[in-house]
């Protein structure tokens, strides 16, 4: 099987933005909606993000942009409509905190694995992740976080992050993995904030 055909086969099994968001709708997510009119752009305040409902690396495709005000959002929305005339566009609120990765991955030897690690700029510098085979306990999840080399960042910024909410979010992802057949679930980033933790983006590959 040719490499290009393999890539297309994988992409065909992946959910787009809205499809992925619908799959993980029961998990803690930032607020979002499909843009149907200009008034939708200011519903969540600024800054906000616009995302095109496509499969693939959205940043490289120009399919995700940050908008700092209404004028900026309207301008970027018009450009997205020109570049992706057949695709829906989502507006999404921003959520501040530390960017993490939480996910599920099917392994031929260990079965379904839970993945927890650092995302964003941390992932670009060094891959800092921890794995556990499902099922996992809350204690297992706490140990996974403690195993991360960069765990001190949660105490080094002079802020108090709500780790209980983050652990609970991971618990829900693990439970989700026991109930649904997915080949891979990539929640990146999951933002750990001072009062909550929320999923900002999701990529789902179905079995």
Shape: globular
What's the order of the H and E elements?
HHEEHEHEEEHEHHHEEE
Helix percent reads 25-40%
CATH topology of the largest domain, by name, is: D-amino Acid Aminotransferase, Chain A, domain 1
Model regions low in confidence, pLDDT < 50 over at least 5 residues: 1-12
The count of DSSP E runs of length 2 or more, i.e. the number of strands, is 10
Record the SSE blueprint.
Elements: H1 3-13, H2 17-23, E1 32-34, E2 48-52, H3 58-61, E3 64-67, H4 70-83, E4 89-93, E5 98-107, E6 111-118, H5 120-125, E7 129-133, H6 138-147, H7 153-156, H8 163-179, E8 182-192, E9 197-199, E10 202-206
Antiparallel strand pairs: 1-4, 2-3, 2-4, 5-6, 5-8, 6-7, 8-9, 8-10
Task: Put the structure in a nutshell.
This protein is an alpha+beta fold.
Description:
By secondary structure, the chain is an alpha+beta fold. It folds into 2 domains: 31-93, ATP-grasp fold, A domain (Dna Ligase, domain 1, 2-Layer Sandwich); 98-206, ATP-grasp fold, B domain (D-amino Acid Aminotransferase, Chain A, domain 1, 2-Layer Sandwich). It contains 8 helices and 10 strands. Strands 5, 6, 7, 8, 9 and 10 form a 6-stranded antiparallel β-sheet that branches. A 4-stranded antiparallel β-sheet has the order 1-4-2-3.
């Amino acid at each position: 099987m040719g490499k290009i055909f393999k890539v297309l086969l994988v992409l065909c099994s992946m959910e787009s933005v809205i499809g992925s968001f619908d799959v993980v709708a029961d998990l803690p997510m930032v607020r979002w909606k499909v843009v149907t009119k200009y008034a939708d752009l200011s519903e969540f305040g600024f800054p906000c993000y616009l995302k095109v409902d496509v499969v693939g690396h959205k940043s490289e495709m120009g399919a995700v942009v940050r908008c700092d005000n209404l004028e900026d959002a309207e301008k970027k929305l018009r450009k997205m409509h020109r570049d992706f005339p057949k695709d829906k566009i989502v507006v999404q609120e921003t959520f501040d905190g530390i960017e993490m990765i939480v996910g599920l991955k099917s392994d031929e030897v260990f079965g379904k694995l839970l993945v927890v690690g650092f995302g964003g700029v941390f992932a670009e510098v060094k891959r800092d992740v921890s794995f556990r085979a499902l099922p996992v306990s809350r204690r297992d999840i706490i140990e996974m976080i403690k195993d991360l080399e960069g765990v001190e960042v949660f105490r080094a910024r002079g802020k108090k992050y709500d780790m209980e909410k983050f652990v609970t979010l991971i618990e829900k992802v693990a439970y989700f993995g026991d109930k649904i057949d997915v080949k891979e679930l990539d929640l990146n980033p999951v933002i750990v904030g001072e009062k909550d933790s929320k999923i900002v983006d999701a990529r789902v590959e179905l079995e």
